[in-house]
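Good day; I would like, with your permission, to put a structural problem before you. What I wish to show you is a protein chain and, alongside it, a tokenised description of its three-dimensional fold. Here, with my thanks, is the record as I have it:
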Amino acid sequence: MIPIIRKQNMPAGAIFSLLLALTIQQTFTTDVSPTVVAPETSSPPVSPATPGPPERGSYNVTNATDTCLLARMGLQLNISFISSSHGKTVQEVLNLHPNLIKFSGSCTPDFATLKLTEDKITLTFSFSLNSTSNKYHLSGLELSAALPDMAEPLVVSNTSLNYMVGTLGHSYMCQKEKILNVTQDFSLNTFQLQVQPFGVNGDFGTAEECELDEDDMLIPIIVGAALAVLVLIVILAYLIGRNRSHAGYQTI
């Protein structure tokens, strides 16, 4: 309860002191909710989402009137470049789209190329054939790309590769995703791949599977063999136990 101050009976200094004391008392007795400062949080940097598996496309190269190279595959580019907007090295994964790709190439008896172009991206495969062993392989890959965020166009190549090794007249197949390391700034991921660069006779020849596909087939075989051995052990144990039980009886 605030007392009634009568101005005519109290000096001005006393009135001021009394008001100051009342103000201080009210300040300390009034409940004041504490101020809670929320901690500062920073959102983690958002990395670009990796696209799903690419669509499989079909490509061919015709030399004169005959088809000399066949390829079916889904392709995914993994590239590093200097970003013009950030000024830093960024890594980007891009799918090639078969419906947007223009393809061409050339063939000789021991060398074949397949060139795929989508907008400002060009990917060139080079295959070599060893006429002595009748074995072919992917010997070179070249990529040129000029994406909008690139500080300068990316041009990389490697002509000393040894991927997709197959036999003349046969196709090379790898259904699983396979990563082909080309340079420090570029690797190529292939999906559902089947290719035949030499000895084409209308369609793909007998497929020679890659190690990844062979491993997938090996696992069920091993599991099946282990189950067969387990069943055999159970049968043998049953027969041995049965023979012992019969041997325990005596004829009266």
Remarks:
- Residues 28-33, 40-47 have pLDDT under 50 and may be disordered.
- The CA atoms of residues 80 and 91 lie 4 Å apart.
